[in-house]
Amino acid sequence: MAPPIPGSRLGTKEELRSQCGVSVGTFNEALRLLQARGLVTVKPGPGGGLFSAEQSPMVRLGNSVLALDAQQSDVANAVRIRDVLDPLLIEDALWHASPADISGLKEHIAAMERAVDAADPVVFVHANWRLHAAIAAISPNALLSSLYTNLLDLIEAHTLTVLPAGEEPLDHCIAHRHELHSDLVDALERRDREAALRLIHEHNTSLQPEEHAAQR
To answer: Can you give the pLDDT at residue 190?
Structure first.
C-alpha cells in the first residue's frame, strides 16, 4: 500500500479507530506518538480530522537532503554543533586509535560500501553515522564523546528518509562520500594529521542547512 500523500486527509478519529479495531485509549496513545513524531496533524471543525503531516527536507548532505519530522530546527542545530566537534574527535583518534579501533572503523566503511553497491542511501547514511559514533568512542574525553553521540542520536531519530537534491544522482553522491570516509580512515591509520583534518573539513563543508526547505 502506498504511503499517504503529505497533507492528505486520513479520516476522523472515530473512523480510523474503528478501522484499526482498537480501544479509545490505545488509539489515543498511538495518535499522541504519531503527533510527537510529526507524522500526523489534527484539524478541528467541519472537514477536519487527521491529516498526513507535511514533511520538510531540512538538512543538506552533499547533493542529498535529510527529510525530517517536526524537529527541523533541533536537527539543523545538532548538525552545526556536530561539525564543530568533528575535528576535535579526529585529533583524538589520531593519537589514541588502536589497531583494533581502525579495524572496527573499516568494518563500518565496508557497510557503507555495501549500501553504495545496493544504491540504498538510507542504509548508507545510517552506516555513516555508525562510523562517526565509532570514531567518537575512541576519544578518551568521555564528555566530548557522549555529547557527540547524543547529537548523532538526535539527528538519526528525526530523519525520515534521504532525498536527492540538485542534478547529481544520489547514488553518485553516496559513492563520493564513501570514498571520502574511506580516505579519512586510511589517514587515521597512517597517523596523517594533515590529510585527516583536510578530509574532515571537506566532509563538513559539504553538509549545509537546506535554507528553503520550509517552503517545499
So the answer is: 97
